[in-house]
UniProtKB/TrEMBL annotation:
Source organism (scientific name): Pseudomonas fluorescens
Residues reported to bind ATP: 37, 41, 83, 88, 102-104, 125-130, 177, 342
GO cellular component, one term: cytoplasm
Name of the protein this chain belongs to: Chaperone protein HtpG
Keyword terms, alphabetized: ATP-binding, Chaperone, Cytoplasm, Nucleotide-binding, Stress response
């Protein structure tokens, strides 16, 4: 081996120490997965070299035949994995092998529960697969040199997984990375050609470059051992280029785990080849769980882009809209140039056509999942529902299609679970109902008992209950579905249309006319606190309620604007009262204007509290209420 220089011992990042502890104590239930992880990393290193060599062909250093080699030594009890990909410099080795260099590290560590079974699901989401080597090895050595650096700038990294690692500069003639695993006692089974071959076939058959093992020879006694020969043990062809009929579900699932760095099978996938005006292949996956950085809009996202089976870009964002950023997969085009850049991707009309087609394919895949596997779709919605709600604002062309995929809680349900589709809502709508009714609020507990729902309960009309912070914003873009417009039951002057009989409408008009004097008295009492006072058609049990003006912001939007530091427009609520309620009848008969004013303000504040709002002057409310209680007790 070459002479080592600049040798030093460094400590692992705290998160790595915790992770290694989990790994060494058999975090994975299936130890053989270590090889899948190391092969995936080697494949990524080769992909990166291919990409960089597009603009710098000298990085190939005359060796354009890219491959991965796996070998073993039974006597030394080692397994060695070598690739001729991009390799690492000394600084990169320290960064990539000494830290978890990925966004969301804090979230990752925070979510480790100490329950090995649960924690094992978290590993793949943070690009920490290299450390899986310590499941079977008590010492790991890495020899690497980055393509383009001098042979004297190789690096040797070594660790026993005990909190620190050694790093030194060495001579390394060839670019790429060689990893040597010194197997733990009892893990000798992995220093075996047949065992390694089976693991590679099982997990890495889809890798689109040759994975080679030494050829097995059975030499006769006294016969000289032949020179080492290598044979390819995987298909070494891009999975997405093969006919769908030839690909097993297990192969699709393993390929997803490779590109998605995930440890769970995907919920669904769609494999498609387009021929004609545009020619490209796509393989798209819906993950089973959300990554921790799903709501970090600047986090890396997008599909792996290949051009004529040559890797070009790892996170090509231009092929799917942002609300579908959770989709994993690959797209391989025959119509793009190999020197494609992010700037070109943003302007190319070919990309726009592909984006439109791929978006529809994803939405079709989700429709199929919702129809054929509702329980799986329920799981999908829990993980990605809020992201899907960004869709109608971002993707006008597919607004109706996205709306069909949305799920909501409703007054028909017994809990906050969002399981009702708009199609289901309309299917059980009342005869003559031409509107889709909904109510937004901060919490399910607050909206399910809201006074705004009283008339709907009385008439047996279902109302959707929207409690995600994004919901009010969503409904500003989602104006109708299947020809039926949406109506916020807390906004404007409620009109139930055909759901009210002519007799009910006539009676309401007469009552409103008879209470004009009371309306004027309350308006004078409440003054600038309200924009309007009127008789309510919404209430059956409560004395009063606050409605939102037709053009005013609701509570959710106001909170979003306030949280972002934006100025919130001034608006005043509409005070509606129930003329049949005993409190309102008592108020109507009150002779003392002072007492009338106190009662009006108490009813106004109670209506604000029922709507989930905070009181502007809680002390005044308490003072008035105490005064009233004293009078009643006298």
């Amino acid at each position: 081996m070459s002479v080592e220089t600049q040798k030093e011992t460094l400590g692992f990042q705290t998160e790595v120490k915790q992770l290694l502890h989990l790994m060494i104590h058999s975090l994975y239930s299936n130890k053989e997965i270590f090889l899948r992880e190391l092969i995936s990393n080697a494949s990524d290193a080769v992909d990166k070299l291919r990409f960089e060599a597009l603009s710098k062909p000298e990085l190939l250093e005359g060796g354009a035949e890219l491959k991965i080699r796996v070998s073993y030594d039974k006597d030394a009890k080692t397994v060695t994995l070598e690739d001729n990909g991009i390799g690492m410099s000394r600084e990169e080795a320290v960064t990539h092998l000494g830290t978890i260099a990925k966004s969301g590290t804090a979230d990752f560590m925070k979510n480790l529960s100490g329950d090995q079974k649960k924690d094992s699901h978290l590993i793949g989401q943070f690009g920490v697969g290299f450390y899986s080597a310590f499941i079977v090895a008590d010492k790991v050595e890495v020899f690497s040199r980055r393509a383009g650096l001098d042979a004297s700038e190789g690096v040797h990294w070594a660790s026993k997984g005990e909190g620190e690692f050694e790093i030194a500069t060495i001579d390394k003639a060839d670019r790429g990375t060689r990893i040597v695993l010194h197997l733990k006692s009892g893990e000798d089974e992995f220093a075996d050609g047949w065992r390694l071959r089976n693991i590679i076939k099982k997990y890495s058959d889809h890798i689109a470059l040759p994975i080679e093992l030494p050829k097995e020879h059975t030499a006769a006694e006294g016969e000289e051992k032949p020179a080492e020969e290598w044979e390819t043990v995987n298909r070494a062809s891009a999975l997405w280029t093969r006919p769908r009929t030839e690909i097993k579900d297990e192969e699709y699932q393993e390929f997803y785990k490779h590109i998605g760095h995930d440890y769970e099978n995907p919920l669904s996938w769609s494999h498609n080849k387009v021929e004609g005006k545009l020619e490209y292949s796509s393989l798209l996956y819906v993950p089973a769980r959300a990554p921790f950085d799903l709501y970090q809009r600047e986090a890396p996202k997008g599909l792996k882009l290949y051009v004529q089976r040559v890797f070009v870009m790892d996170q090509a964002e231009s092929f799917l809209p942002l609300y579908l950023r959770f989709i994993k997969g690959v797209v391989d085009s025959n119509d793009l140039s190999l020197n494609v850049s992010r700037e070109i991707l943003q302007k190319d009309p070919i990309i726009d056509s592909m984006k439109s087609a791929l978006t529809k394919r994803v939405l079709d895949m989700l429709e199929k999942l919702a129809k054929n596997e509702p329980e799986q779709y329920k799981s999908f919605w829990k993980n990605f529902g809020q992201v899907m709600k960004e869709g109608p604002a971002e993707d006008f062309a597919n607004k109706e299609k996205i709306a069909g995929l949305l799920r909501f809680a409703s007054t028909q349900g017994s809990d906050a679970e969002q399981v009702v589709s708009l199609a289901e809502y309309l299917a059980r709508a009342k005869e003559g109902q031409d509107k889709i009714y909904y109510l937004t609020g901060e919490k399910y507990e607050a909206v399910k008992d809201s006074p705004h729902l009283e008339v709907f309960r009385k008439k047996g009309i279902e109302v959707l209950l929207l409690t995600d912070r994004i919901d009010e914003w969503l409904m500003s873009y989602l104006t109708e579905f299947d020809g039926k417009s949406f109506v916020d039951v807390a906004r404007g002057d409620l009109d139930l249309g055909n759901l009210d009989s002519e007799e009910e409408k006539k009676e309401a008009e007469e009552v409103a006319k008879s209470k004009e004097g009371l309306v004027e008295r309350i308006k004078a009492s409440l003054g600038d606190a309200v924009s309007e006072v009127r008789v309510s058609h919404r209430l059956t049990d409560s004395p009063a309620i606050l409605a939102i003006g037709e053009q005013d912001l609701g509570m959710q939007m106001r909170q979003i604007l306030e949280a972002s530091g934006q100025k919130v427009p001034d608006s005043k609520p509409i005070f509606e009262f129930n003329p049949a309620h005993p409190l309102i009848e008592k108020l109507d008969g009150e002779q003392s204007e002072e007492r009338f004013g106190d009662l009006s303000h108490i009813l106004f504040d109670q209506a604000a509290l029922a709507a989930g709002d905070s009181l502007k002057d809680p002390a005044a409310y308490v003072r008035r209420l105490n005064k009233l209680l004293v009078e009643l007790s006298v």
